[in-house]
Amino acid sequence: MSFIVERLTIIGVGLIGGSFARALRQAGVVKTIIGVDRDISNLKQAQSLGIVDEISENPCEGVRDADVVFISVPVCSIPAVVQQIAASLGPGCIVTDGGSVKAGIVSCCERLIPEGRHFVGGHPIAGTEYSGAAASFATLYKNKRCILTPTTDTDPTALALISHLWQSTGADVCSMDAQRHDRIFAEISHLPHMVAYSLVHAVGTADAEGEDILSYSAGGFRDFTRIASSDPAMWRDIAIMNHTALLASIDGFSSSLAVLRASIEQGDGEGLVDFFTKAKCFRDGIK
Ligand SMILES: NC(=O)C1=CN([C@@H]2O[C@H](COP(=O)(O)OP(=O)(O)OC[C@H]3O[C@@H](n4cnc5c(N)ncnc54)[C@H](O)[C@@H]3O)[C@@H](O)[C@H]2O)C=CC1
Ligand SMILES: O=C(O)C(=O)Cc1ccc(O)cc1
Predict the structure, then answer these.
(1) What kind of architecture, by CATH, is found in domain 180-284?
(2) CA-185 nearest atom, ligand 2
(3) Pocket test for ligand 2, best of 182, 230, 235, 237 (most atoms within 8 A of CB)
(4) Amino acid 209: pLDDT
Protein backbone atom coordinates (compact mmCIF):
# COMPACT_ATOMS: atom_id res chain seq x y z
CA MET A 1 0.00 0.00 0.00
CA SER A 2 1.44 3.43 -0.87
CA PHE A 3 0.41 6.25 1.41
CA ILE A 4 0.23 9.78 -0.01
CA VAL A 5 -0.07 11.16 3.52
CA GLU A 6 1.30 9.74 6.79
CA ARG A 7 -0.73 11.83 9.27
CA LEU A 8 -4.01 13.55 8.38
CA THR A 9 -5.89 15.55 10.99
CA ILE A 10 -9.59 16.25 10.49
CA ILE A 11 -11.04 19.12 12.51
CA GLY A 12 -14.85 18.70 12.59
CA VAL A 13 -15.54 14.99 12.10
CA GLY A 14 -19.10 15.36 10.83
CA LEU A 15 -20.74 14.49 7.51
CA ILE A 16 -18.02 16.13 5.36
CA GLY A 17 -14.94 15.40 7.49
CA GLY A 18 -16.10 11.87 8.34
CA SER A 19 -16.85 11.05 4.69
CA PHE A 20 -13.43 12.41 3.63
CA ALA A 21 -11.76 10.16 6.23
CA ARG A 22 -13.79 7.09 5.25
CA ALA A 23 -13.12 7.59 1.52
CA LEU A 24 -9.37 8.11 1.98
CA ARG A 25 -9.11 5.11 4.28
CA GLN A 26 -10.97 2.96 1.75
CA ALA A 27 -8.60 4.18 -0.99
CA GLY A 28 -5.63 3.27 1.28
CA VAL A 29 -3.85 6.58 0.76
CA VAL A 30 -3.57 7.84 4.36
CA LYS A 31 -1.71 6.01 7.15
CA THR A 32 -3.10 7.59 10.33
CA ILE A 33 -6.17 9.81 10.74
CA ILE A 34 -6.55 12.01 13.82
CA GLY A 35 -10.01 13.38 14.60
CA VAL A 36 -10.59 16.68 16.43
CA ASP A 37 -14.06 17.87 17.37
CA ARG A 38 -15.53 20.02 20.09
CA ASP A 39 -18.37 17.50 20.55
CA ILE A 40 -16.75 14.65 22.50
CA SER A 41 -19.63 12.20 22.01
CA ASN A 42 -19.45 12.70 18.22
CA LEU A 43 -15.68 12.24 18.38
CA LYS A 44 -15.91 9.00 20.38
CA GLN A 45 -18.52 7.72 17.94
CA ALA A 46 -16.18 8.55 15.02
CA GLN A 47 -13.44 6.50 16.67
CA SER A 48 -15.70 3.57 17.51
CA LEU A 49 -16.97 3.53 13.91
CA GLY A 50 -13.33 3.31 12.74
CA ILE A 51 -13.52 6.66 10.91
CA VAL A 52 -10.49 8.02 12.80
CA ASP A 53 -7.59 6.25 14.55
CA GLU A 54 -6.84 8.81 17.26
CA ILE A 55 -8.93 11.58 18.80
CA SER A 56 -8.28 14.87 20.54
CA GLU A 57 -10.51 17.65 21.82
CA ASN A 58 -7.59 20.05 21.57
CA PRO A 59 -6.97 21.32 17.99
CA CYS A 60 -3.37 22.37 18.74
CA GLU A 61 -2.56 18.92 20.09
CA GLY A 62 -4.44 17.24 17.24
CA VAL A 63 -2.45 18.93 14.46
CA ARG A 64 0.97 18.20 15.96
CA ASP A 65 3.11 16.32 13.36
CA ALA A 66 0.23 16.37 10.84
CA ASP A 67 1.20 16.46 7.16
CA VAL A 68 -2.29 17.60 6.13
CA VAL A 69 -5.08 19.24 8.17
CA PHE A 70 -8.64 19.19 6.77
CA ILE A 71 -11.04 21.65 8.42
CA SER A 72 -14.73 20.81 8.09
CA VAL A 73 -16.53 22.95 10.66
CA PRO A 74 -19.23 25.60 9.86
CA VAL A 75 -17.75 28.30 7.60
CA CYS A 76 -17.63 31.21 10.07
CA SER A 77 -15.52 29.08 12.44
CA ILE A 78 -12.90 28.06 9.83
CA PRO A 79 -10.66 31.19 10.10
CA ALA A 80 -10.87 31.01 13.92
CA VAL A 81 -9.74 27.36 13.86
CA VAL A 82 -6.82 28.24 11.55
CA GLN A 83 -5.82 31.08 13.89
CA GLN A 84 -5.98 28.67 16.85
CA ILE A 85 -3.76 25.98 15.23
CA ALA A 86 -1.35 28.24 13.26
CA ALA A 87 1.52 28.16 15.78
CA SER A 88 1.25 24.35 16.18
CA LEU A 89 1.63 23.49 12.47
CA GLY A 90 4.87 21.74 11.56
CA PRO A 91 7.05 22.82 8.60
CA GLY A 92 5.51 21.91 5.22
CA CYS A 93 2.07 21.16 6.73
CA ILE A 94 -0.83 21.75 4.31
CA VAL A 95 -4.12 23.08 5.68
CA THR A 96 -7.23 22.74 3.53
CA ASP A 97 -10.97 23.03 4.12
CA GLY A 98 -14.35 21.86 2.83
CA GLY A 99 -16.39 25.01 3.52
CA SER A 100 -19.31 25.97 1.26
CA VAL A 101 -18.16 29.61 0.90
CA LYS A 102 -14.65 30.43 -0.27
CA ALA A 103 -13.55 34.08 -0.77
CA GLY A 104 -13.61 35.17 2.89
CA ILE A 105 -12.06 31.92 4.10
CA VAL A 106 -9.25 31.91 1.53
CA SER A 107 -8.22 35.53 2.13
CA CYS A 108 -8.29 35.15 5.95
CA CYS A 109 -6.56 31.78 6.04
CA GLU A 110 -3.79 32.75 3.62
CA ARG A 111 -2.96 35.64 5.97
CA LEU A 112 -3.06 33.42 9.06
CA ILE A 113 -0.87 30.56 7.80
CA PRO A 114 2.76 30.95 8.94
CA GLU A 115 5.75 30.93 6.59
CA GLY A 116 6.63 27.43 5.32
CA ARG A 117 3.08 26.07 5.86
CA HIS A 118 0.42 26.14 3.14
CA PHE A 119 -3.31 26.76 2.67
CA VAL A 120 -5.51 25.42 -0.15
CA GLY A 121 -9.23 26.28 -0.21
CA GLY A 122 -11.67 23.54 -1.22
CA HIS A 123 -15.35 22.69 -1.48
CA PRO A 124 -16.77 19.24 -2.26
CA ILE A 125 -20.05 19.60 -4.15
CA ALA A 126 -21.68 16.74 -2.35
CA GLY A 127 -23.66 16.43 0.82
CA THR A 128 -26.95 15.53 2.39
CA GLU A 129 -29.35 17.12 4.87
CA TYR A 130 -27.85 15.01 7.70
CA SER A 131 -25.04 15.94 10.11
CA GLY A 132 -22.48 14.27 12.34
CA ALA A 133 -19.94 11.44 12.04
CA ALA A 134 -22.64 8.76 12.00
CA ALA A 135 -24.16 10.31 8.86
CA SER A 136 -20.86 10.09 6.94
CA PHE A 137 -20.19 7.49 4.23
CA ALA A 138 -17.23 6.53 2.04
CA THR A 139 -18.92 7.04 -1.34
CA LEU A 140 -20.25 10.57 -0.72
CA TYR A 141 -17.73 12.14 -3.11
CA LYS A 142 -17.71 9.47 -5.81
CA ASN A 143 -18.31 11.08 -9.23
CA LYS A 144 -19.10 14.42 -7.56
CA ARG A 145 -17.23 17.63 -8.21
CA CYS A 146 -14.71 19.05 -5.79
CA ILE A 147 -13.70 22.67 -6.40
CA LEU A 148 -10.32 23.98 -5.27
CA THR A 149 -9.80 27.75 -5.15
CA PRO A 150 -6.06 28.44 -5.47
CA THR A 151 -4.68 31.98 -5.63
CA THR A 152 -1.42 33.34 -7.03
CA ASP A 153 0.09 32.64 -3.57
CA THR A 154 -0.90 28.95 -3.51
CA ASP A 155 2.00 26.51 -3.39
CA PRO A 156 1.75 24.30 -6.53
CA THR A 157 2.98 21.16 -4.71
CA ALA A 158 0.41 21.64 -1.95
CA LEU A 159 -2.33 22.17 -4.56
CA ALA A 160 -1.29 18.99 -6.42
CA LEU A 161 -1.35 16.91 -3.21
CA ILE A 162 -4.81 18.15 -2.13
CA SER A 163 -6.09 17.55 -5.66
CA HIS A 164 -4.65 14.00 -5.54
CA LEU A 165 -6.34 13.33 -2.17
CA TRP A 166 -9.74 14.43 -3.51
CA GLN A 167 -9.26 12.33 -6.65
CA SER A 168 -8.63 9.35 -4.37
CA THR A 169 -12.12 9.85 -2.89
CA GLY A 170 -13.56 9.44 -6.40
CA ALA A 171 -14.23 13.16 -6.90
CA ASP A 172 -13.75 15.10 -10.15
CA VAL A 173 -11.47 17.96 -9.16
CA CYS A 174 -11.44 21.40 -10.78
CA SER A 175 -10.07 24.81 -9.84
CA MET A 176 -11.87 28.15 -9.80
CA ASP A 177 -11.40 31.69 -8.51
CA ALA A 178 -12.95 32.00 -5.01
CA GLN A 179 -15.14 35.04 -5.87
CA ARG A 180 -16.53 33.26 -8.92
CA HIS A 181 -17.17 30.19 -6.77
CA ASP A 182 -19.19 32.26 -4.30
CA ARG A 183 -21.32 33.86 -7.06
CA ILE A 184 -22.06 30.49 -8.68
CA PHE A 185 -22.89 28.70 -5.42
CA ALA A 186 -25.04 31.58 -4.20
CA GLU A 187 -27.28 30.81 -7.21
CA ILE A 188 -27.14 27.03 -7.47
CA SER A 189 -26.90 26.01 -3.80
CA HIS A 190 -27.35 28.81 -1.28
CA LEU A 191 -30.46 30.38 -2.91
CA PRO A 192 -32.27 27.00 -3.21
CA HIS A 193 -31.66 26.34 0.49
CA MET A 194 -33.04 29.80 1.38
CA VAL A 195 -36.08 29.21 -0.84
CA ALA A 196 -36.70 25.76 0.67
CA TYR A 197 -36.43 27.11 4.22
CA SER A 198 -38.71 30.07 3.46
CA LEU A 199 -41.26 27.92 1.61
CA VAL A 200 -41.61 25.51 4.54
CA HIS A 201 -41.58 28.45 6.96
CA ALA A 202 -44.37 30.17 4.99
CA VAL A 203 -46.54 27.08 4.64
CA GLY A 204 -45.92 26.02 8.25
CA THR A 205 -46.86 29.42 9.65
CA ALA A 206 -49.80 29.92 7.21
CA ASP A 207 -51.75 27.22 9.01
CA ALA A 208 -53.76 29.74 11.05
CA GLU A 209 -56.84 27.51 11.20
CA GLY A 210 -54.82 24.60 12.65
CA GLU A 211 -55.67 22.40 9.66
CA ASP A 212 -52.36 20.52 9.78
CA ILE A 213 -51.61 21.57 6.19
CA LEU A 214 -48.12 20.03 6.15
CA SER A 215 -49.57 16.55 6.73
CA TYR A 216 -51.13 16.74 3.24
CA SER A 217 -47.74 17.18 1.52
CA ALA A 218 -47.30 15.06 -1.60
CA GLY A 219 -44.04 13.97 -3.28
CA GLY A 220 -43.48 17.35 -4.91
CA PHE A 221 -43.42 19.26 -1.63
CA ARG A 222 -41.24 16.62 0.01
CA ASP A 223 -38.74 16.47 -2.89
CA PHE A 224 -38.53 20.23 -3.15
CA THR A 225 -38.08 20.84 0.58
CA ARG A 226 -35.75 17.97 1.63
CA ILE A 227 -32.89 20.44 2.03
CA ALA A 228 -34.93 22.49 4.55
CA SER A 229 -34.06 19.66 7.01
CA SER A 230 -30.37 20.71 6.81
CA ASP A 231 -28.50 21.99 9.86
CA PRO A 232 -29.65 25.58 10.74
CA ALA A 233 -26.27 26.61 12.22
CA MET A 234 -24.42 25.53 9.07
CA TRP A 235 -26.80 27.56 6.88
CA ARG A 236 -26.70 30.59 9.20
CA ASP A 237 -22.93 30.68 8.64
CA ILE A 238 -23.23 30.27 4.85
CA ALA A 239 -25.88 33.03 4.59
CA ILE A 240 -23.76 35.40 6.69
CA MET A 241 -20.45 34.68 4.99
CA ASN A 242 -21.78 34.80 1.40
CA HIS A 243 -24.26 37.65 2.05
CA THR A 244 -23.29 39.88 -0.90
CA ALA A 245 -23.71 37.22 -3.59
CA LEU A 246 -26.70 35.67 -1.80
CA LEU A 247 -28.59 38.98 -1.58
CA ALA A 248 -28.10 39.47 -5.34
CA SER A 249 -29.45 35.94 -5.94
CA ILE A 250 -32.45 36.56 -3.66
CA ASP A 251 -33.19 39.80 -5.56
CA GLY A 252 -33.06 37.93 -8.89
CA PHE A 253 -35.38 35.29 -7.51
CA SER A 254 -37.80 37.94 -6.16
CA SER A 255 -37.95 39.54 -9.63
CA SER A 256 -38.69 36.18 -11.20
CA LEU A 257 -41.44 35.48 -8.66
CA ALA A 258 -42.86 38.96 -9.30
CA VAL A 259 -43.11 38.20 -13.06
CA LEU A 260 -44.93 34.95 -12.25
CA ARG A 261 -47.23 36.71 -9.79
CA ALA A 262 -48.14 39.37 -12.37
CA SER A 263 -49.00 36.71 -14.97
CA ILE A 264 -51.26 34.95 -12.45
CA GLU A 265 -52.91 38.23 -11.42
CA GLN A 266 -53.54 39.18 -15.07
CA GLY A 267 -54.79 35.71 -16.00
CA ASP A 268 -52.04 35.72 -18.66
CA GLY A 269 -52.10 32.03 -19.69
CA GLU A 270 -49.60 32.57 -22.51
CA GLY A 271 -47.18 34.30 -20.13
CA LEU A 272 -47.52 31.42 -17.67
CA VAL A 273 -46.86 28.78 -20.32
CA ASP A 274 -43.83 30.77 -21.56
CA PHE A 275 -42.49 31.06 -18.03
CA PHE A 276 -43.01 27.37 -17.18
CA THR A 277 -41.67 26.20 -20.57
CA LYS A 278 -38.48 28.21 -20.19
CA ALA A 279 -37.95 26.79 -16.66
CA LYS A 280 -38.72 23.24 -17.83
CA CYS A 281 -36.15 23.56 -20.64
CA PHE A 282 -33.47 24.66 -18.15
CA ARG A 283 -34.42 21.83 -15.77
CA ASP A 284 -34.52 19.16 -18.50
CA GLY A 285 -31.08 20.33 -19.68
CA ILE A 286 -29.39 19.47 -16.37
CA LYS A 287 -27.19 16.41 -16.87
N1 LIG B 1 -23.55 19.24 4.78
C2 LIG B 1 -23.28 19.36 3.50
O3 LIG B 1 -24.06 18.89 2.67
C4 LIG B 1 -22.03 20.08 3.07
C5 LIG B 1 -21.30 20.85 3.95
N6 LIG B 1 -20.17 21.49 3.52
C7 LIG B 1 -19.38 22.30 4.47
O8 LIG B 1 -18.66 21.40 5.29
C9 LIG B 1 -18.50 21.94 6.59
C10 LIG B 1 -18.98 20.91 7.60
O11 LIG B 1 -20.33 20.56 7.36
P12 LIG B 1 -20.94 19.17 7.87
O13 LIG B 1 -19.92 18.13 7.87
O14 LIG B 1 -22.20 18.98 7.12
O15 LIG B 1 -21.31 19.54 9.37
P16 LIG B 1 -21.47 18.56 10.62
O17 LIG B 1 -22.31 19.29 11.60
O18 LIG B 1 -21.88 17.21 10.17
O19 LIG B 1 -19.97 18.48 11.17
C20 LIG B 1 -19.29 19.57 11.71
C21 LIG B 1 -18.55 19.11 12.95
O22 LIG B 1 -17.72 20.17 13.38
C23 LIG B 1 -17.75 20.23 14.80
N24 LIG B 1 -17.37 21.60 15.15
C25 LIG B 1 -18.10 22.72 14.96
N26 LIG B 1 -17.40 23.79 15.32
C27 LIG B 1 -16.19 23.34 15.73
C28 LIG B 1 -15.01 23.97 16.21
N29 LIG B 1 -14.93 25.29 16.33
N30 LIG B 1 -13.96 23.19 16.55
C31 LIG B 1 -14.02 21.84 16.44
N32 LIG B 1 -15.12 21.19 16.00
C33 LIG B 1 -16.18 21.94 15.64
C34 LIG B 1 -19.15 19.83 15.18
O35 LIG B 1 -19.21 19.33 16.50
C36 LIG B 1 -19.46 18.76 14.13
O37 LIG B 1 -19.15 17.45 14.60
C38 LIG B 1 -19.26 23.27 6.61
O39 LIG B 1 -18.32 24.30 6.43
C40 LIG B 1 -20.18 23.18 5.41
O41 LIG B 1 -20.45 24.44 4.85
C42 LIG B 1 -19.68 21.36 2.24
C43 LIG B 1 -20.36 20.58 1.33
C44 LIG B 1 -21.60 19.91 1.67
O1 LIG C 1 -28.30 17.95 0.34
C2 LIG C 1 -28.07 18.45 -0.77
O3 LIG C 1 -28.65 18.08 -1.80
C4 LIG C 1 -27.07 19.53 -0.92
O5 LIG C 1 -27.21 20.43 -1.71
C6 LIG C 1 -25.89 19.37 -0.07
C7 LIG C 1 -24.86 20.46 -0.13
C8 LIG C 1 -24.90 21.44 0.82
C9 LIG C 1 -23.92 22.41 0.85
C10 LIG C 1 -22.91 22.39 -0.09
O11 LIG C 1 -21.96 23.32 -0.03
C12 LIG C 1 -22.86 21.41 -1.05
C13 LIG C 1 -23.83 20.42 -1.07
Answers:
(1) Orthogonal Bundle (1.10)
(2) 11
(3) 230
(4) 81
Return the domain boundaries, the chain.
5-176, 180-284
pLDDT digits (tens, 9 = 90+) for 89-144: 999 999 999 999 999 999 999 999 999 999 999 999 999 999 999 999 999 999 99
10 contacts 22 by C-beta, under 8 angstroms: no
Query: What SS3 state is found at 147?
Result: strand
- Supply the CATH classification number for the domain 5-176: 3.40.50.720
DSSP annotation of 190: I
- Average pLDDT over every residue of 160-174: 98
CB contact burial 92-125 (16+ within 10 A = b; e otherwise): ebbbbbbbbbbbbbbebbbebbeeebbbbbbbbb
User: Which helix (DSSP H) or strand (DSSP E) does residue 10 occupy?
Assistant: strand 5-11
Q: What is the ipTM of this complex?
A: 0.99
Residue 8 is which amino acid?
A: L
Helix axes 232-241, 243-265, angle to 10 degrees: 100
pTM of the model: 0.97
Number of helices followed by number of strands (H, E) in the chain: 12, 9
Residue of minimum CA distance from atom 7 in ligand 2: 127
Rama region for 115: left / alpha / beta (φ>0; ψ in -120 to 50; rest): beta
Ligand 2: residue whose CA is nearest its atom 1 = 128
